[in-house]
Specification:
The chain has 366 residues and is mainly alpha-helical. It is built from 12 helices and no strands. It has 2 domains: 187 residues, no CATH class; 162 residues, no CATH class.
Amino acid sequence: MSEQTVSEKNNKTVTTWLFMVVALIMLLVTFGGFVRLTRSGLSIVEWNPITGVIPPLSEEAWQTEFAKYQQTPEFQKINHTMTLFEYKEIFWLEFIHRLIARFAGLFVVIPIFYFLFKGIIPWRKSPIFLLIGLLFGFQGFMGWYMVSSGLVDNPAVDHLRLTFHLLTALLLMGLALWMALRYFYHSPKIIRAQFKSAGFIMAVFLLIVLIIQIAYGGLMAGLKAGHVSNTWPLMGGRLIPPGLLDTFDTALENLLEAPLTVHFIHRWFSLAVLLVAIVLYYVVKRKNHAYAITKLALIFIVLAIIQISLGISVIWFSVPLVLALTHQAVALLLYVASIIIVYQILHEPVTAPVPQTEKELKPTTA
């Protein structure tokens, strides 16, 4: 086998692995939403990274786990009539969630060291991969830090910790996807001139407003603000409900802590995402960017419209499980699409403008 063939094979292996890491993170985020919506996340009250891979194997062990759960505010304030059989149902959901997270961690860390040891990934490129591995470990810690907030007084996780946990997952997924794209396209060089292009600026702006919208989705989930109103477009019979900034003393507290305000912002900021996406589409089309970029921008618009429709449906039907999870999954697809758009624009060669009129084609004379 030639050296070039080996290099191509190694490149394909790393590319496949990175895309699988992205898929695993998306699965974890979506399954995490399922665990949250079924109120299963607080069923396991301890974090045992090693011994936690073994579930209760006897009736006595199950009784011990159930007794620990009975000491939590969730059981005492909400599930005080829960039986051992019902506890097992929510326990298994959280157990599977943690098991997938452990598997994902091993799936990330072990290949990184293997690729580095074998020289498949050059050591000069190791920092970004080591960062991905460290972030995965940090995500595990953040998951427990989030869960622990719901085991003290309030039978719900802290919404700010939940949102930070979500944002670090997005960062991790974004890094893995960016590297996957670099390997998929054989590490093309960044075209520095694109930093000043209107298409790149709009694409980055779209990514920023999308992350803000997803962050507010995390705040919505943590505050259970989706239940504040089940009507659209009106809230409490009004387009702009009263008291948006009256729940807390400061505007910042209201923007981050008040369920009514968080719901209102998340509801209407989705239109800002759609508007920016439409502007991006017209910019990349007018500036003659590659057809693939224009097409992806159009796909983003379609996904954004679907996402808004799902969001309205979630409100109308009082946060049903399937619709809420689909809403969350589409948000991840939008995030992936936005990163790919940024990547493709940043790596697209800058070409000279094509003459548009017959006058421009004629040579100038002295």
